[in-house]
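Private note to self, pasted from the team thread so I don't lose it. Backbone tokens:
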């Protein structure tokens, strides 16, 4: 048989260089592009893409050109400096290339015997993270996952295994009404019933109500149930809020409850002095989710779960099937397939390792500090304005506010409509990605400023446009 997959060295190089050129040029010119892809319907895209899988080959460059023309421009650039919404994905170029290298060599990152250096890199980088968060290096451990959702799921499986064993019929899990949706998703995947979940209301600053948590635990114990896990927020996605971690840790210690801290968004703030202060107590978690593809500036996909005791992971996830018997090593030589869900895993540690080696940790500290300070500067600007009202202050690079001119006497309903429409107008221009969220039943505009490329001028520019839109929309509302 002719091996159709073979290419000559020259062909591989010229094809590969073309892709590297595309990536480098994108990084170099991102500022000149619009962050938001033109909205297309399923019908629009079916017309471009839908066809049966072709039996016959097409010239490689022709397929690539088609992708460059139709896939890349129909994607929103979360790494764009004016992508302010959700959680931006600023990424970095070195990691982008390292990830490409890991793919290029198709390095299997499941077991020590197959790729010992891959496992070693994961051990070393996980140790860097353990140290950052003041977790015990010797006893502690962790694993890189596809993202924060998978890290949270891995944590909750572990918590249940360690605290409940096989019988979790009486187990109860607690989380705040600001917890990320991936936590509820994980709880459902684990098969908990609705009656086993307690959503604890937050206070006016979006922190968990400690008293409400204590009451819920006490009531459940009286009913013979087993409180086994609490999920605390270290930087909520909505407002950047950090729950009172020391107070929560005290309760969890007293009640023998597993403390899982979801730091998928805010964990990386530990790199900045101010973040360290805000995250005080995070070192008391039993398990901690962080998400390097967010604020550690890594490309998708890399999430991470850290635990106080690595044996909790191996005790939960190791199975010893007969076909893996030849690759069992000694205990210090970790098989990461024993630490989580995946057997076959890509080498995620490589990008993390390469970028920190290349740029140095200080570059990351500077970037995170810059992001936090930029958001505070934006808050100051908004507070000095007669048209903007800050709804939730700059917290770990997230700020929520709304257009609400002080000299206008507007009903809540009108303010909601006004802000919704301002966001729509921005999105129609595609000059920025800037959407709303809901806080305390109000529609508010939210900015998450974790891109080191984002300047104050970028934000100022967007806000100035919004003020103009606000004025126009308000006038049109008055005349109708
Ligand atoms: C983003 C996020 C998650 C989910 O992480 P993914 O990487 O998107 O799977 C979980 N928790 C919080 C607080 C987040 O911000």
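Design output:
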């Amino acid at each position: 048989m002719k091996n159709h997959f073979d290419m000559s060295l020259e062909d591989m190089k010229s094809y590969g260089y073309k892709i590297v050129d595309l990536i480098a040029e994108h990084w170099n010119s991102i500022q000149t592009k619009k962050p938001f892809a033109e909205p297309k319907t399923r019908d629009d895209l079916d017309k471009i893409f839908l066809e049966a899988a072709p039996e016959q080959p097409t010239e490689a460059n022709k397929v690539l050109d088609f992708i460059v023309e139709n896939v890349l421009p129909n994607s929103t650039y979360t790494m764009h400096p004016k992508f302010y919404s959700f959680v931006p994905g600023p990424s970095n170029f070195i990691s982008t290339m390292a990830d490409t290298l890991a793919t290029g060599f198709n390095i299997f990152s499941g077991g020590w015997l197959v790729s010992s250096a891959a496992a070693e890199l994961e051990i070393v980088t996980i140790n860097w993270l353990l140290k950052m968060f003041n977790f015990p290096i010797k006893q502690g451990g962790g694993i890189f996952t596809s993202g924060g959702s998978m890290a949270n799921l891995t944590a909750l499986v572990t918590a249940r295994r360690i605290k409940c064993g096989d019988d979790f019929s009486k187990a109860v899990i607690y989380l705040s009404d600001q917890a990320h949706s991936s936590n509820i998703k994980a709880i459902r995947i684990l098969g908990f019933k609705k009656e086993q979940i307690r959503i604890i209301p937050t206070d006016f600053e979006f922190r968990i109500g400690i008293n409400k948590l204590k009451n819920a635990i006490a009531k459940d114990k009286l009913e013979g149930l087993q409180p086994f896990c609490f999920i605390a927020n270290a930087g909520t996605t909505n407002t950047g809020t950090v729950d009172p971690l020391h107070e929560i840790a005290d309760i969890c210690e007293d009640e023998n409850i597993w403390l899982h801290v979801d730091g998928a968004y805010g964990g990386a703030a530990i790199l900045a002095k101010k973040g360290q202060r805000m995250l005080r107590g995070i070192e008391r978690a039993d398990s901690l989710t962080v998400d390097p593809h967010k604020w550690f500036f890594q490309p998708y996909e890399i999430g991470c779960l850290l635990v106080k005791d690595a044996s909790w992971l191996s005790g939960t996830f190791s199975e010893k099937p007969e076909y893996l018997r030849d690759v069992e090593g000694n205990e210090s030589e970790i098989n990461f397939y024993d630490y989580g869900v995946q057997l076959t895993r890509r080498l995620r540690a490589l990008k993390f390792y390469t970028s920190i080696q290349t740029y140095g940790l200080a570059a990351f500290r500077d970037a995170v500090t810059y992001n936090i300070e930029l958001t505070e500067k934006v808050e100051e600007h908004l507070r000095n304005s007669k048209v903007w009202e800050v709804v939730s202050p700059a917290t770990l690079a997230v700020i929520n506010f709304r257009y609400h001119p002080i000299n206008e006497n507007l009903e809540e309903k009108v303010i909601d409509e006004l802000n919704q429409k301002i966001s729509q107008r921005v999105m129609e221009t595609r000059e920025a990605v800037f959407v709303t969220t809901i806080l305390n039943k109000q529609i508010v505009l939210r900015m998450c400023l974790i891109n080191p490329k984002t300047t104050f001028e970028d934000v100022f520019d967007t806000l100035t446009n919004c003020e103009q839109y606000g004025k126009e929309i308000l006038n049109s509302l008055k005349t109708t």
